[in-house]
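Q: Convert this sequence to structure tokens.
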Amino acid sequence: MEYHDIVVIGGGPAGLAAAVSAYDAGCRDVLVIERDERLGGILNQCIHNGFGLHTFKEELTGPEYAERYIRKAEERSIEYRLRTIVADVSPEREILYVNRDEGAVRMKAGAIVLAMGCRERPRGALGIPGYRPAGIYTAGTAQRLMNIEGYMVGREVVILGSGDIGLIMARRMTLEGAKVKVVAELMPYSGGLKRNIVQCLDDYGIPLRLSHTVTKIHGKRRVEGVTISEVGPDRRPVPGTEEFYSCDTLLLSCGLIPENELSKQVGIILSRVTGGPEVDDSLETSAEGVFACGNVLHVHDLVDFVSEEAERAGRNAAAFAAEGGKTRGGVLQVTPENGVTYTVPQKIRTDAAEKVTLRFRVNGVYRDRCVAVRSSGAEIKRVKRRIMAPGEMEELILTGEDLARCAGGITVGLED
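A:
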């Protein structure tokens, strides 16, 4: 059976950063498996700028950012296989993949890094009444059709959901001559970055209707319009608030779902909040020797943070493969509370490194609050934040001294 020290599943920004990091940590037998025809993942269709400010200290487009990491991988002669689909992964780290040239192939890995990314929530998961006419796309599909295939998907557009891809597509379609009539958001706050709201909506005079959703799609062969209604605190439409917008296209930007079908096959414990694996501070999942990073772990706001996280996963996978695994020590459970939706990692090893980076999101818009870390009731760390919102991922660093003071489980919550 073919063997590799490390197999990275996914050749997007997370997979490439993990592979490069594993190589630089001393592992020379790294294989990247990618289902698309080229490396780079979703970045290949993100032709707008704004990437790389943290990682490369300059502003790049998505393809430029991807090319930097592709070049790093090629400079290190890291092996990769394109147009290859991983069909099965076992708890013993055996992988079955399929491609046109080799057929079905089984291999064994010393360590595995899961970096499959995420997918968009489709219309079927939203329960919008109406027929199924042409002209309904997820925002990412519309982005690919326009930026890679060269098709104009519509001229009069309504966007449901204010995720970052939806906001960016509002600007993209406006620049191509379409009229974006409104962006409707179910929640009372936007799910995207503040800078995208300003640069993609405000700068182009595109209205954002918070606490609104599409309640009906009109048209049989092609979308002819949509009805948008206000929703109450229970997120149900309020009778009498219906508004009709004529349009020929509806874009859906209603959230991203981590691609964890393979994780389920391995038997990895998944978080009910993030949809991704539960991991410790080394980004190792509940399956020994299987690590996760990027949007398959939890949906990020910036690709720079994806790369940073993936580099950590790659280093730790390389250490695991070199040591052949080792006995796990104790762990401290990290529990979100008081406005914190989730944290990654969910566990911290008692023999953790000198510092641990906790990433988390909040469940609403908060101003002038403190993030408090406690263990057995005792305050370990307190950091004041001027403003926090669900669309922005937050970060907190626990030092070795902080961890040494933890006597039991850790809670992370917001306090006045």
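DSSP finds eight helices and 27 strands in the chain.
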